[in-house]
Design a protein that fits this description.
homotrimer, 344 residues, alpha+beta, Rieske Iron-sulfur Protein, Naphthalene 1,2-dioxygenase Alpha Subunit, Chain A, domain 1, 7-stranded antiparallel beta sheet, 4-stranded antiparallel beta sheet
Chain lengths: 344, 344, 344
Amino acid sequence: MFLRNSWYVAAWDHEVPAGTILARTFLDEPVVLFRDEAGAPVALEDRCAHRHLPLACGRIVGSTLQCGYHGLVFDRTGLCVRVPGQTQVPPGARIRSYPVVERHRWLWIWMGDPAAADPATIPDYHWNDDPKWVSVGDRFHVKGSYTLIVDNLLDLSHVQYVHGTTLGTDAVVDFPVHVTRHDDRVQIDRWILDNPPPPMFWRAGNLDPAARVDRWQLISFYPPTHVVIDVGCAPAGSGAPHGDRSKGIEMYSNHTITPETKTSSHYFWHHARNFRRDDPAITEFLKKAAGGAFFEDVGIIEAQQASIDTDVEKLPRVDINADAGVIAAQRLLARRIEDEAARR
Amino acid sequence: MFLRNSWYVAAWDHEVPAGTILARTFLDEPVVLFRDEAGAPVALEDRCAHRHLPLACGRIVGSTLQCGYHGLVFDRTGLCVRVPGQTQVPPGARIRSYPVVERHRWLWIWMGDPAAADPATIPDYHWNDDPKWVSVGDRFHVKGSYTLIVDNLLDLSHVQYVHGTTLGTDAVVDFPVHVTRHDDRVQIDRWILDNPPPPMFWRAGNLDPAARVDRWQLISFYPPTHVVIDVGCAPAGSGAPHGDRSKGIEMYSNHTITPETKTSSHYFWHHARNFRRDDPAITEFLKKAAGGAFFEDVGIIEAQQASIDTDVEKLPRVDINADAGVIAAQRLLARRIEDEAARR
Amino acid sequence: MFLRNSWYVAAWDHEVPAGTILARTFLDEPVVLFRDEAGAPVALEDRCAHRHLPLACGRIVGSTLQCGYHGLVFDRTGLCVRVPGQTQVPPGARIRSYPVVERHRWLWIWMGDPAAADPATIPDYHWNDDPKWVSVGDRFHVKGSYTLIVDNLLDLSHVQYVHGTTLGTDAVVDFPVHVTRHDDRVQIDRWILDNPPPPMFWRAGNLDPAARVDRWQLISFYPPTHVVIDVGCAPAGSGAPHGDRSKGIEMYSNHTITPETKTSSHYFWHHARNFRRDDPAITEFLKKAAGGAFFEDVGIIEAQQASIDTDVEKLPRVDINADAGVIAAQRLLARRIEDEAARR
């Protein structure tokens, strides 16, 4: 089940340069993305109304898309505006169009009722294009459900098992999380006090690996699939838990997942820092380190999905204490999906 | 749904040389083709009556086929005539055999009731071995329904979008077709008057690309899947529309599709000309040009089939004027299939 | 359908060296094999109780297995004994464990009720580690049902069609088998008297290819999937049929099949001889010759399975005289499976 009335990331801005057509499936629907003559993104159903050839096999003509089979032309609203060889367009010759907005270096698509699409509700990922931050990011295709990816991001007790050489330290799991349930989000916060920094932190921050730091992992989950993670560390006892981060380093590890099908996903992420911003070596290091760590998660999630797919008995899954945030988030999303179904 | 009581092309003659076994699936049934000692083609079910090993794993013994597992021998009627190690053949030890006839360089198979198989009803493709014509051809395997391939061939308004550099000119779609419905066929004719010839025509016919010609596309559809296309051009105003082709060039672009499964097909075609017959460079050019153009269609059809397969909502398809011939042909075939079902 | 209360071979001993985890599916269940600190084999469900990641993605810790996602630890009984970050293990946190016994160079697993697992019922394959014999063997993965493989082994009339250049001679099928039905096994015996030896025999035994020998194929089938084949030959008339093998050569061609799924299998075999035991060239020759011949069977079985899978009509299979042993074995196995179902 998917939440339909919601903004999802369809693509990075640079994945849809002027003059090219990008085909991608979201929520089980084939979509084609391109830019009109003014450079604004357009999202249409990837299927001609006539004989169902994917429009990705066609070509951009001005601000319209022309099918590559018999030349029917569709405008950005999905209306067929020309049928070669005849003067009238037959009634009903239209395809779905999807609201699409470009913001924070991402193209956001609305897969639900277009009348309900309000760009003001696009989640805040300003770190991705805010000049005060330097952000790196990528997109992974994952053969796993979006729910498994969100679960992964909301329970960071996995970092010492999955990311032992990058993000993890042995101590993470011994510091419990504090979960706060809001109407619009779940907050999952962990403070790891008076401990060594993980490898990625001391390398990026030029810290002493043997130093003692107070480290934070403050996770905000916004349904359906948006995860903003405020991470960083400061010298132990320098006041970070009380708000003074002036002696520390801050990063945002941000993620958003767009379902492709029930069991596959587009996983978009960016990682932003506000220190050593002019050092391209650090930028490159963080892109590789964050991407490498998240790709370790992809391996886990794909193995997990395959295990679930072959489990014909639908065996139960046991919960542990670390799942508190995950469970709160699942409930919030389930409630949203139920509300949406009830309104239909 | 398939029309069973009908001749279909199983293979080119040269695909089944003496001494070799060809396995191919038609109408969802596995079939094995080989030649008997006299060189006559034989078509049997590709499945031993004993333990269902494909007989394609066996060997030809005289005019019979011997299974490669336990040595059972089947004659051209499908009857088991020998079981090694025993003197009696068990009752019921037989497999299906299919009427098969070699004509016009193709092997024709009858997948329906053998008693109804009349070789006189094999469609006329004499251009493929008539000494007055030089014919080139090939076979494509297509991951698409036979109906999509037939639709493609009956509506040539696609040529300017799919074959712009070979068969197409911009004007095709502006000249409407004239559709005639007969009991046994549909005729779909288009005359493109006083226009430049398409690239393949002026290259093959050594014409002036800037010349003005009267060009014809006269399509005969015979159910279930036979399409004979009479194409050519003559100098504009030289009388071709009234029957005088003496100053023009004529070609036959002929096609026949054999369903493999509901969503895959064997696509056989040949392209014949009656001019510059002694020039092997033209023969080679036409083989490459026609094959290249038809392979562009294969790409379209496979994309279209994939689009249809993933359309869980079974969305309707809008018709346009150019579909008149396609729709007439679909109705004629549907009527034949219904008649056949009613008789069973 | 599978017989569950039965020993199956899970792996060769050398496939599970200390410190490594082997993942393999048996009877449609994912299993993970490893060795405890004492070197004893352990078999667990390959699925963490928490979020179903395969435990094959984890690591061995002492005599336990730790999940590679959140670090849950399972002991050899399948009980979760540690959840990082909490002091209590949640009730119900356990996975299946399977009885496993190492014998005759194979690891034997019991997929049924553990209380019924009696190592005394492991079938006798002593030839595989008896110092009086030299044994070679291997494991094949087969995309075919275990029943097809057993059928293949119980009807050796196929050897002259499938293994003409190795195990076969033209005469095999002309010598009928003698089938004896016991409560616990089926015995299928064939004597081929006064005939030339097959190529593998005269090469291994250094015999005259033109010699006349009395040759035996004495097959014992133990349900569900165990096949012991006593093969050999002695000079014609030297008394072998009456028990005097002193002038001949003896080999055991032994097989056991473990279902992976309904249509795929793990096929384990070994081939033992008690002559020319110190000659490594003969050992090497027999490993290649036996393995090569059995691999010919794999090709046949996979083609047969594919043929059965595409047979939507479920066409009947005709039986022949040579199937007497196969049919007796199928009945014995069917009876065991019915008995087991009745007891549940």
